[in-house]
Amino acid sequence: MKKPSIVFFDIDGTLYTEEMTLPPSAKQAIRELKEKGVYVAIATGRAPFMFESLRRELEIDTFVSFNGSYVVVNGDVIMKQPLDRKTISELQKAAYQKQHPMVFLDHQQAAADIEGHEHVAESLHFLKMPYPPVKKDFYLNNDIYQALLFCDEREEKTYKGLFESLHFIRWHRRSLDILPAGGSKANGLRAVANHLGYTMDETVAFGDALNDIEMLQEAGIGVAMGNALEEVKKTADMVTAPVHENGVRTGLERLGLL
Fold first, then answer.
1. Which InterPro entries match (predicted)?
2. Among this protein's residues, is 10 annotated catalytic?
């Protein structure tokens, strides 16, 4: 295996603690990593507008967002895969019948299809996001790279059976990410690596949640945070300390990158 040349970091539970703060040790570690000539990128389920301040703070302009549906390298969009509008409409109708709210996201903003729903508020509060404005037809005039469907785990099987052209990833007990089938952070990693001329053997990925599993398996070295779900840890090549216990720096030191 080649020496790692590019490292991808998830945000929530990897760079950010439960309080949505970036540990000073992680910020310093990333600064040192870049000084050593290692390329640093972000790979997240978030929309670009949801982590703009973090990108500025870390001086990172390459990222995989929307779990792989919108990919940017050095500030330029290299890949984007919006959801099919007809499919979104059909999904919204099915969700409406079950009284399950939805949120639609493009690269600049979010819109909800119902006002003041507690499940939407609970899930987005986890991300420190305000309740989006209500625009039921937002998807008709905007490219939607990810939708959120709010339902319990026992209720999601129905949707998976009806919409095989969509990829459902649970990120919260109340919410699912909705992506085009085949969409994943792993695809985004491959796109970035190919664009920059790296092989996958030269890549490292840090993550903690279910939407990180494919990325950790695809990367040359997959690193699970100590606070990661057990299912995620089982798929990783290495487990580092929890994010709030200097997990990023510890992982990079164990890899010999710092």
1. Cof (IPR000150), HAD-like_sf (IPR036412), HAD-SF_hydro_IIB (IPR006379), HAD_sf (IPR023214)
2. yes
CATH class of the domain defined by 6-80+183-254: alpha beta
Task: Give residue-wise pLDDT tens across range 40-71.
Answer: 999 999 999 999 999 999 999 999 999 999 99
Q: Which fold has domain 85-180?
A: 3.30.1240
pTM over 0.85: yes
Which pLDDT band, with edges at 50, 70 and 90, does 1 fall under? low
Q: Which entry of 10, 113, 177, 212 is annotated as an active-site residue? A: 10
Distance of CA 62 to the CA centre of its chain: 14
Q: List the domain boundaries for the chain.
A: 6-80+183-254, 85-180
